[in-house]
Amino acid sequence: MTDGSCSALLLFGATGDLARRMLLPSLYALHEDDLIRSGLRIVGTARSEIDDEGFRVMAKAALDEFLPPDRKDDAKLKSFLQRLSYQALDASTIDGFDDLAKKVGDTTKGMSIFLSTAPFLFEPTIEGLRHSGLAHEKVRIGLEKPLGEDLDSSAVINDAVGSAFSEDRIFRIDHYLGKETVQNLMALRFANMMFEPLWNAHGIDHVQITISETVGLEGRKGFYDDTGALRDMVQNHMLQLVALTAMEPPAEFDATSIRDEKVKVLRALRPVKAEEMVRGQYGAGAVKGASVASYADDLGEPSGTETFVALRAHIDNWRWQGVPFYLRTGKRMAERRSEIVIQFKEVPHNIFAKRGAKLRANRLVIRLQPEEYVRLQVMAKEPSLDREGILLREVPLDLSLTQAFAKARRRIAYERLLLDLIEGEQTLFVRRDEVEAQWRWVDAIRKVWREEDIDTKSYAAGTWGPNAGIALTERDGRSWND
Fold this sequence. Notes:
Elements: E1 8-12, H1 17-32, E2 41-46, H2 52-66, H3 74-81, E3 84-88, H4 97-104, E4 111-115, H5 122-131, E5 139-143, H6 151-162, E6 170-172, H7 180-190, E7 204-212, H8 221-246, H9 255-267, E8 277-283, E9 285-287, E10 290-292, H10 295-299, E11 308-313, E12 325-330, E13 337-344, E14 363-369, E15 373-381, E16 392-400, H11 401-404, H12 413-423, H13 432-452, E17 457-460, H14 467-474
Parallel strand pairs: 1-2, 1-4, 2-3, 4-5, 5-6, 7-12, 8-17
Antiparallel strand pairs: 7-13, 8-11, 9-10, 11-12, 13-14, 14-15, 15-16
Helix pairs in contact: 1-2, 1-12, 5-6, 6-13, 8-9, 8-13, 9-13
């Protein structure tokens, strides 16, 4: 289904925060650049009792708030809003789905659905779509997380969706895969000969992946306290980054080849031992010079939920045997950062040692946000006559993707993912066997937490997490890239 013949896009949760901040601005950007067909109708649905005009007013307010000033074109905005219509729906009951189908209209030429809903609503929603004729073979569905809270609940959701949609019509969304820098990771690895010969246990000492946030709960109290950092970030975003970093070269750049290689990595992840994991929860502190409360105060009650996780992971295959992957994510940390760090091994012999020169191993930093760059740290000689010895120091070879492609339109992840959903391109979406491999690994970690009674360790907001997280690398003679 890659003919792009979609005639309608149905947005569940159309009045929610995700739609206001991301989906509507992304769809407007695609409309502005004439990347979606002029006849594509966008139908929003949610519990809110508003009409078409009320939805357009809400959408206009969202675009006014979240679009950059230079993207606002009155004529384009007006024509975009005319695409929009709305149908109120209580997805917990089948009663309203026939009215929704009437609102959507003819879907014989194809329709795409973006489903963002609470896990308990997946089954009744799918049943309602099937009952109303909105799940036929020309319809594809995009699923926003959370897709369950463990392997068993995830399987229930996937079974429900699979009962109405074949796998080639299911698009499981991980918005990290839509980021341009994440896709550049594959270009860096597989379009450049210089890296691939070293991209293994012979050339790499270890890998670090950090996703750190400075924000706290930010209106997500109920969801986050039931979920925690492990399931909110590690189970999806971080494990997808691990898979892309570690996978074998795919035969083709297509959905099947790439996802086949990713799932091999996820299945090869070794179970994590108790001494290889750290849980943390932020206490009171200061972020960017401003005092902030503890997690318990933000939540309004004591909680054992982790806001920080650090793990030492291993991939049991030939390429990565003996190479640790250090994973770290948390809230209220020192700075906002998402990055992959490839630490290469030291050269086998320092020919400059007798001249007093010290060497440091090369390091490749792939920064995903807030900046976007690829930086290779290499050793270089400082200019001098060398009478007191040779002085070598690290210098960066920088590729700023923002500057290198300054004339190219910088797009947010959901622009690409929504366009791929509309056109039926699955490469940047997650297959069921990937999701299940991720859950198996994460469920095993949570089992260790329960059996070993691993509690959260407190860390001050505005720091890099609890001391035990720092010690996780220091015990191995390594350090986080702070």
